[in-house]
Design the sequence.
């Protein structure tokens, strides 16, 4: 066989000697953890800003909790990204330019901006007078930037050449936003609030988790449009985590419904929801690594795009 001749799979189309056609993502475990932490922080900031506008001082404790989650999440998220990059200056180098066409560059700016605004909102809102008003303005700014923070990582994944991510580019950002909102609500449910505040959090969390389940199915279906591309959601560790995530999210909804307003039930449901959200991120990360190793997925995806 000549050097230029391709080998043929008995099940799928030709590849080049069954060698991977794209490079496997080199991201370490810090990245999927950041997907969770950053997403929950962004969603919490947005929830807090919406409550600030609609409910004012009546939900002050809940708004402050949202701001605290956002501030802590963006701080931890920045540390995770720096740890993955290896050196702090590598993160700072991404801020030397402003390039709207680059999801990675825009994501760096979104994270930095959200970190500053969230920290300002969490700290200054505890003060009085002009500093408190500045904290409120920072909270609104953090809420505006929180929505893209909760979903830009999915845009980043979908912009790669990894087939399982690229094929779900339409539904994956929506999945990340829904899952981030559910994750933020799970963290909020662990707090001690009045009945009215808890009712609002539980309702939003239920809607977010139901949306997450539906969008996870949409991602799986979208990936499967090209035969074999969605296989990482069915096989291996990524497939196990994908199913585990669904089970944990369903379990969270069931426990929250059955136990009602009891604090142990709320905490149990929140823990299940948190674990489900984390499992989802790790499943997506591992699915991308498996997909990059599969040359058939790459070639089949490219051929369908060309047709």
Sequence:
């Amino acid at each position: 066989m000549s050097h230029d001749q391709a080998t043929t799979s008995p099940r799928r189309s030709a590849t080049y000697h069954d060698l991977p056609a794209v490079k496997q993502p080199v991201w370490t475990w810090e990245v999927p953890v950041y997907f969770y932490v950053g997403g929950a922080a962004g969603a919490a900031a947005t929830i807090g800003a919406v409550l600030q506008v609609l409910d004012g001082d009546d939900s002050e404790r809940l708004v402050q909790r949202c701001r605290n989650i956002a501030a802590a999440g963006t701080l931890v998220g920045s540390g995770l990204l720096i740890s993955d990059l290896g050196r702090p200056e590598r993160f700072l180098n991404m801020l030397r330019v402003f390039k709207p066409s680059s999801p990675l560059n825009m994501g760096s700016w979104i994270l930095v901006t959200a970190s500053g605004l969230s920290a300002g909102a969490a700290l200054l809102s505890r003060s009085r007078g002009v500093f408190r008003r500045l904290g409120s303005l920072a909270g609104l700014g953090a809420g505006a930037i929180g929505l893209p923070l909760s979903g830009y990582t999915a845009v980043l994944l979908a912009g790669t050449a990894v087939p399982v991510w690229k094929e779900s580019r339409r539904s994956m950002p929506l999945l990340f936003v829904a899952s981030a909102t559910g994750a933020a609500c799970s963290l909020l449910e662990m707090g001690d609030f009045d009945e009215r505040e808890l009712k609002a959090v539980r309702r939003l969390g239920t809607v977010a988790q139901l949306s997450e389940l539906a969008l996870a199915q949409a991602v799986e279906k979208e990936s499967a449009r090209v035969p074999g591309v969605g296989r990482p959601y069915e096989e291996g560790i990524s497939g196990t985590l994908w199913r585990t995530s669904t089970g944990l999210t369903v379990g969270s909804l069931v426990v929250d419904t059955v136990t009602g307003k009891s604090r142990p039930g709320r905490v149990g449901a929140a823990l299940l929801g948190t674990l489900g959200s984390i499992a989802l991120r790790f499943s997506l990360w591992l699915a991308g690594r498996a997909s990059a190793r599969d040359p058939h997925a790459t070639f089949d995806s490219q051929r369908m795009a060309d047709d």
About this structure: The chain has two domains: 27-159, 182-297. The domain at 27-159 is CATH 1.20.1630.10 (Formate dehydrogenase/DMSO reductase fold).
